């Protein structure tokens, strides 16, 4: 990828590509990334119309286009090249690739994008990609294979299509929590993203009215290491943004840890507030400050 700044990636709001009203609302809102959907949100008979609508919307909104992304249809179906041929002339901010089987799909997409960038006067390699890496059973075995994969700037996961892929009747336990296989998918996405050196993005919460539940879940996965979350409704965006933004108390604590190590160069472990801090604490503090733009 060229050394160009990427937008924040806390909140990724889906909007159907065949609804100009919903695309406009997503683009005008507070989501870090508006994600125009050509896949699941668009019926087969509307896909051609949706491609043109997304193209026209991107063309009409050149300002801030780096945060206007498109989810294309999967590579194992008949629509991918039609999607890309329609939208790439309008220079989308990035592409979401769903239902992959492994790294080879990302590499194939890279070839397609490179050809279309050159054809449309776009800098080759400049269109970033986020990959949905757990939506097929086969993909689950390759979640750690994206290190150095071309264009990939984030990884995310999905539970609904994974359930379909393995023939499950549900992906939930009786209490509403995800079953083991889907918690495994969440963990493998996090580990895969860490291996690749890119942010992990949490999957959607389907019940967009449960904002308290969304807040608790977003804060929990952030503690686990996730750096953002997909959204299906504008009401979810501000909750997600707040959950993935370090608080002033967290920033102050991280700065204090960085400062105490800076004042004691060469020390591997140091006493702090009645306990001991070692280098992993320093690394986490630096990462938090970096995410807050304070480092």
Automatic annotation (TrEMBL):
<feature type="binding site">
    <location>
        <position position="135"/>
    </location>
    <ligand>
        <name>Mg(2+)</name>
    </ligand>
</feature>
<dbReference type="InterPro" id="IPR011206">
    <property type="entry name" value="Citrate_lyase_beta/mcl1/mcl2"/>
</dbReference>
<feature type="binding site">
    <location>
        <position position="161"/>
    </location>
    <ligand>
        <name>Mg(2+)</name>
    </ligand>
</feature>
<comment type="similarity">
    <text>Belongs to the HpcH/HpaI aldolase family.</text>
</comment>
<feature type="binding site">
    <location>
        <position position="135"/>
    </location>
    <ligand>
        <name>substrate</name>
    </ligand>
</feature>
<keyword id="KW-0456">Lyase</keyword>
<dbReference type="Pfam" id="PF03328">
    <property type="entry name" value="HpcH_HpaI"/>
</dbReference>
<feature type="binding site">
    <location>
        <position position="71"/>
    </location>
    <ligand>
        <name>substrate</name>
    </ligand>
</feature>
<dbReference type="GO" id="GO:0000287">
    <property type="term" value="F:magnesium ion binding"/>
</dbReference>
<dbReference type="InterPro" id="IPR015813">
    <property type="entry name" value="Pyrv/PenolPyrv_kinase-like_dom"/>
</dbReference>
<dbReference type="InterPro" id="IPR005000">
    <property type="entry name" value="Aldolase/citrate-lyase_domain"/>
</dbReference>
<protein>
    <submittedName>
        <fullName>Citrate lyase subunit beta/citryl-CoA lyase</fullName>
        <ecNumber>4.1.3.34</ecNumber>
    </submittedName>
</protein>
<dbReference type="GO" id="GO:0008816">
    <property type="term" value="F:citryl-CoA lyase activity"/>
</dbReference>
<keyword id="KW-0479">Metal-binding</keyword>
<keyword id="KW-0460">Magnesium</keyword>
<feature type="domain" description="HpcH/HpaI aldolase/citrate lyase">
    <location>
        <begin position="10"/>
        <end position="234"/>
    </location>
</feature>
<dbReference type="GO" id="GO:0006107">
    <property type="term" value="P:oxaloacetate metabolic process"/>
</dbReference>
<dbReference type="InterPro" id="IPR040442">
    <property type="entry name" value="Pyrv_kinase-like_dom_sf"/>
</dbReference>
């Amino acid at each position: 990828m060229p050394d160009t700044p990427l937008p924040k990636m806390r909140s990724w709001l889906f909007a159907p590509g065949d609804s100009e009203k919903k695309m406009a609302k997503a683009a005008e809102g507070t989501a870090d990334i508006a994600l125009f959907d050509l896949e699941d949100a668009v019926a087969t008979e509307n896909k051609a119309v949706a491609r043109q609508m997304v193209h026209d919307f991107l063309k009409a909104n050149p300002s801030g286009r780096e945060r206007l992304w498109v989810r294309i249809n999967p590579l194992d179906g008949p629509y991918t090249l039609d999607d890309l041929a329609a939208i790439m002339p309008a220079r989308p901010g990035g592409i979401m690739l769903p239902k992959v089987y492994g790294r080879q799909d990302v590499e194939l997409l890279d070839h397609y994008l490179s050809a279309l960038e050159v054809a449309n006067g776009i800098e080759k390699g400049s269109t970033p990609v986020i990959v949905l890496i757990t939506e097929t059973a086969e993909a689950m075995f390759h979640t750690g294979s994206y290190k150095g994969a071309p264009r990939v700037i984030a990884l995310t996961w999905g539970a609904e299509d994974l359930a379909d892929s393995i023939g499950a009747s549900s992906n939930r336990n009786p209490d509403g929590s995800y079953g083991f296989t889907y918690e495994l998918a969440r963990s493998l996405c996090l580990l895969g993203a860490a291996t690749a050196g890119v942010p992990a993005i949490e999957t959607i919460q389907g019940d967009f009215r449960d904002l308290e539940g969304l807040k608790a879940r977003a804060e929990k996965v952030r503690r686990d290491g996730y750096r953002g979350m997909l959204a299906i409704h504008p009401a979810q965006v501000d909750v997600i943004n707040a959950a993935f933004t370090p608080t002033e108390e967290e920033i102050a604590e991280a700065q204090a840890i960085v400062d105490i190590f800076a004042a004691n160069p060469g020390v591997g472990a140091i006493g702090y507030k009645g306990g001991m801090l070692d280098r992993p604490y320093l690394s986490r503090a630096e990462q938090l400050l970096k995410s807050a733009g304070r480092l």
